[in-house]
Request: fold
Amino acid sequence: MLKIEKLCKTFHKNEPDEKVIFKNLNLKIEKGEFVTIIGGNGAGKSTLMNLISGSMSPDSGKIFVDNKNITNLPEHKRAKFIGRVFQDPLKGTAPNLTIEENLSLAMLRNSRRNLAFGVTKQNSEFFKEELSKLNLGLENRLKTKIGLLSGGQRQAITLLMATLVKPEVLLLDEHTAALDPKSRDKILNLTEKITKDAEMVTLMITHNMESALKLGTRTIKLDQGRIVFDLEGENRKNINLLNFE
Reply:
């Protein structure tokens, strides 16, 4: 479960260009829920993900994951149970390392011990099995450097890395926005496949209204840091897309 209580965040406080992003934001998302988040520029979507991931600190308020207060937990410690995929396919991977080396690094994320970096035969077989589920032929390219892959292939690897060690919270920060339509559809299908029946909280920012209402179990619209729509299940199917924007 992800719970946010009275979250406040202001940029440039007490300055002429002061901007209040969140003022007493409350949000609760249960395990297994896949929430799509929409809203215009400056609505607070990416700021919300930055606050959850720990790359940004709130002015006040609390953030809980599985009833554990993580508000003051540094980002590197949250990475053990929070996975994140960014808009830029170049982020989240090491381009000069191979596919299997990148996946090995992802495997170490939740380790409590300082394990030496390396790729074991057992891990390679596991990686092949997981990559085969993507249906992109990448299971036969374990020795290929990530930097040589297409944007869509790279984003598929990044998505797999973020969920290889099942996180409690998965943040998808416009992870298909930089892709061509064909690659975007592939990644969205993979997203749905990977998160289906997974016992984790998934939040996905998107500017595509159709995807926002089709994917996941719940849709939230942010406007100036406020939740103005919060729709679940069947309620989303009856929404007029033109009125929803």
